[in-house]
Known about the structure:
By secondary structure, the chain is α/β, with parallel strands linked by helices. The chain folds into two domains: 9-104 and 112-249, Type I PLP-dependent aspartate aminotransferase-like (Major domain) (Aspartate Aminotransferase, domain 2, 3-Layer(aba) Sandwich); 252-373, Aspartate Aminotransferase, domain 1 (Alpha-Beta Complex). The chain is 37% helix and 15% strand. A seven-stranded mixed beta sheet has the order 1-9-8-5-4-2-3, sandwiched between helices. Helix 2 (17-30) packs antiparallel against helix 8 (239-249). It is globular.
Amino acid sequence: MRPIQMVDTSTQYQKIKREIDAAVIAVMESSQFIGGKVVNEFSTNLAKYNGSKHVIPCANGTDALQIAMMALGLKAGDEVITPSFTYIATVEVAALLGIKPIFVEVDQHSFCIDPSLIEAAITPKTKAIIPVHLYGHAVDMEQIMAIANKHGLFVIEDNAQGIGNEVIFSDGSIKKTGSIGHIGCTSFYPSKNLGAFGDGGAIFTEDDQLANQLRMIASHGQSKRYYHDVIGCNSRLDAIQAAILDIKLSHLDEYIAARRKAADYYDAAFANHPKIKTPFRAANNNHVFHQYTLTLIDVDRDALNEFLAEQKVPSMIYYPVPAHKQKMFDAFGGSAYQLPVTDWLTERVISLPIHTELDQEQQDFIISKVLEFIK
């Protein structure tokens, strides 16, 4: 049996090595490393795949979120509604800009922000909602957009873990996550479903004027070279990463199918176990399983994590400390929040290996070790 990896990017690379190597060499020979044809082609292809009118590539997913907030004119003293149960980048950039994150509880089943609790958190200072498609499961975007439209709020989708997920609306229409809100943001960190061989990110929008603003901010606020109209930053996706991502984009749907197949196998193995709750899958979206995350009932989660490590089975806890309990948010009153579902989940979730190269022999071994510990 091959060693088990949390994410096996090396084996994935070997399968597309000829394509990747040729694309990288072509960039090297062109000497056009920043911007240019390759970056533009990837942006066009990603926009087509995601059903978005505009894609603005950038240096990473964190920058994507910051640029989105800047383009919408959010400023110090404003408030944004977001879950606490998320990777810190979602709310870190808000704090960096002096914007106050208002934490709203998540749904116990989907792990995503609970739309039914959002309206109670809206104040005159609220300017945006930042839903997070956590672990690859989509937020109920139909409800989110209805609330945003009712209250005149922007929606910035954190789609770093959800790219490729399709949401089915009540009228039968289908949209991919990242193309539903006013702005969508994603990350191409190597472990992501669409991962680069370094860092990278992208911003999605349907709005022409907003797209122009996003492009300017990502490029030092330039409307044209050396003419700086707004305060911006320097956030670029380089051509080598764009070339790699363009190859991997053509395989993304098969990658998602492989992850779903692995998730199905796990689900069957853990079905009806009284102490193991497998990932929830809503009928109106297609979970892309960036992570396969169990919720444990009456199990010492940390002890299981240590046991699996001893058995050479990697596992991860995403996330052991929610944002509202991080020291960095003390100044924003984070410790005053009462989020019992978030706290309950952070003590019980554990993610097992899931990736495109996971085989049945590996999964059988992982499953056997989990069940060996959880009687």
